[in-house]
Description:
B: 115 residues, mainly beta, seven-stranded mixed sheet
Amino acid sequence: GNSVTQMEGPVTLSEEAFLTINCTYTATGYPSLFWYVQYPGEGLQLLLKATKADDKGSNKGFEATYRKETTSFHLEKGSVQVSDSAVYFCALSNAGGTSYGKLTFGQGTILTVHP
Amino acid sequence: GAGVSQSPRYKVAKRGQDVALRCDPISGHVSLFWYQQALGQGPEFLTYFQNEAQLDKSGLPSDRFFAERPEGSVSTLKIQRTQQEDSAVYLCASSLVTANTGELFFGEGSRLTVL
């Protein structure tokens, strides 16, 4: 079956530090990969996605590259801000068939950025 | 409203009580998902609707869980004879299309605590 593993958190950084949150997956076929973010007091929202191998998703300064050879989709940002403090979830969805866009999530990584 | 709305936001139930959780998806969204999120974990899929049809209920943990979407818009997740292990945040998400884009719009969730 499908599964997603994220690096254990929480992660605490100073403002302007470099961020990496690791994500690896196990899936059949050729899944689409996503990062969702949950800011305090808000619902989950899509941060970025990649639908095929070697694609790079990017948004708000965050990037992640779909690496099929290592089954990974690590999230990176060159310079974090206090406003990036949130919980980040890596997720996958199998393409086609009867998946209906059903997402399999990792356990989430809490990021706290200090001024 | 502009987003997915869930109610109640918080629910405390005594063990054995029945509860009903409501989801108002974004108007016109065809797809609707329910997820269960235990403390410190990622969301786990419960069930999926395409309009009024429940196409996938493979994630429902027991026959005490029941979901409906009779008119293809508002959905209700019902839990009968609640148990302590049902304590979790229940997330509703909707999507405009049925294709596997993974771009789901999430509500803020209903937090259920069973005493």
